[in-house]
């Protein structure tokens, strides 16, 4: 636990007076990464392995069942058959589950981010900073020649609407200008996405009631953080490797 003065000494990029802070919690193990760069790197590795087939630019329309088992999915470019399927359609996972005949408690929670450049000569943001009162996160992102700042937050209950509302972007822009020294005249690179939320904020990882369909979805606001661990658990469970300790905590039918 840090005092306001200790917070400002640790993170000089914050343009605040110590009297505006009550204090902070510093987690030395916390890390920041660029999820787009991570996905590009992962794609590069998988392409080199040559045992992955990419079927891009097609919509999954619905399940194809035979004898109580999922045997294929209908897509905008025809059927795709497989022995086993993993349901990981983000906030749209519950719609697919409904078509498969079961209820999946995953709801879209819309959030926004902007990516801005710091004002020239301003101290560089060095840590991921969470403003608990505004419920916003400020994180440094290494770009080619400089460090950009990504500001993320906001939770709107809007079913499957991914249009960017300029008023929500403005909230992030104003908060960034208050807390950090940013280049307000520059481009703010707005983005919005739907967090696939579950009622208890834990993902759902496990076999579905429909044979042949495994669920790895509902990671809410921590989908990237949890991605590799969830993928490991998914692969092990499908391979029927010894059960993961705590796997029951992520099952569809878990105790509340
Ligand atoms: C503003 C914001 C900030 C965030 N910050 C963080 C963070 O700092 N750290 C963190 O860990 N997480 C963060 N998250 C959460 C993270 O983005 C999500 O948890 C994560 O993206 C969920 O991954 P997913 O693969 O389950 O779903 P998605 O990323 O939603 O991917 C689902 C995919 O399925 C595809 N799909 C859906 N329906 C169909 C269909 N019918 N046919 C074909 N394809 C389909 C979609 O196009 C999409 O590509 C943030 C989210 C938001 C909105």
Walk me through this protein's architecture.
- The structure is a single chain.
- This protein has 256 residues and is α+β, with helices and mostly antiparallel strands.
- The protein has two domains: 49-106 and 203-246, FAD/NAD(P)-binding domain, CATH 3.50.50.60; 108-197, 2-Layer Sandwich (Alpha-Beta Plaits).
- Helices cover 22% and strands 27% of the residues.
- The chain is built from five helices and eleven strands; from the N terminus they run ααββββαββββαβββα.
- The chain has helices spanning 4-10, 35-49, 93-100, 166-179, 227-238; strands at 60-66, 69-75, 78-81, 85-87, 107-116, 129-131, 136-142, 147-156, 190-197, 204-207, 213-217.
- The strands form three sheets. A five-stranded antiparallel β-sheet has the order 6-7-8-5-9, covered by helices on one side. Strands 1-2-3 form a three-stranded antiparallel β-sheet.
- The protein is elongated.
- The mean pLDDT is 92.
- Flavin-adenine dinucleotide is lined by residues 59-60, 88-90, 92, 111-113, 152, 193, 195-196, 217, 219-225.
Write the layout of secondary structure elements.
Blueprint lengths: L3 H7 L24 H15 L10 E7 L2 E7 L2 E4 L3 E3 L5 H8 L6 E10 L12 E3 L4 E7 L4 E10 L9 H14 L10 E8 L6 E4 L5 E5 L9 H12 L18
Parallel strand pairs: 4-11
Antiparallel strand pairs: 1-2, 2-3, 5-8, 5-9, 6-7, 7-8, 10-11
The structure holds flavin-adenine dinucleotide (FAD).
The site of flavin-adenine dinucleotide (FAD) has 21 residues, from strand 5 and strand 9.
């Amino acid at each position: 636990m840090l005092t306001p003065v200790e917070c400002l000494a640790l993170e000089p990029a914050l343009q605040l007076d110590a009297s505006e802070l009550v204090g902070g919690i510093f987690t030395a193990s916390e890390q920041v990464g660029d999820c787009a760069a991570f996905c590009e790197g992962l794609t590069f590795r998988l392409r080199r392995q040559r045992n992955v087939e990419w079927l891009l630019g097609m919509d999954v329309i619905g399940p194809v069942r035979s004898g109580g088992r999922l045997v294929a999915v209908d897509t905008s470019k025809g059927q795709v058959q497989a022995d086993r399927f993993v349901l990981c359609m983000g906030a749209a996972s519950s719609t697919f589950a409904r078509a498969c005949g079961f209820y999946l408690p995953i709801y879209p929670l819309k959030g926004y981010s902007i990516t801005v450049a710091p004002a020239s000569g301003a101290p560089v943001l060095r840590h991921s900073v969470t403003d608990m009162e505004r419920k916003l996160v400020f994180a440094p992102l290494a770009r080619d020649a400089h460090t950009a700042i990504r500001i993320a937050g906001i939770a709107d209950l809007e079913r499957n609407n991914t249009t960017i509302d300029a008023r929500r972007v403005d909230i992030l822009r104003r908060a960034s200008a208050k807390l950090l020294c940013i280049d307000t005249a520059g481009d703010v690179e707005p983005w919005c996405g739907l967090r696939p939320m579950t009622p208890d904020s834990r993902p759902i990882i496990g076999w579905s009631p429909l044979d042949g369909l495994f669920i790895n979805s509902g990671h809410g606001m921590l989908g990237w953080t949890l991605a590799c661990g969830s993928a490991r658990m998914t692969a092990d469970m499908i391979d029927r490797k010894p059960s993961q300790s705590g796997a029951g905590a992520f099952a569809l039918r878990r105790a509340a």
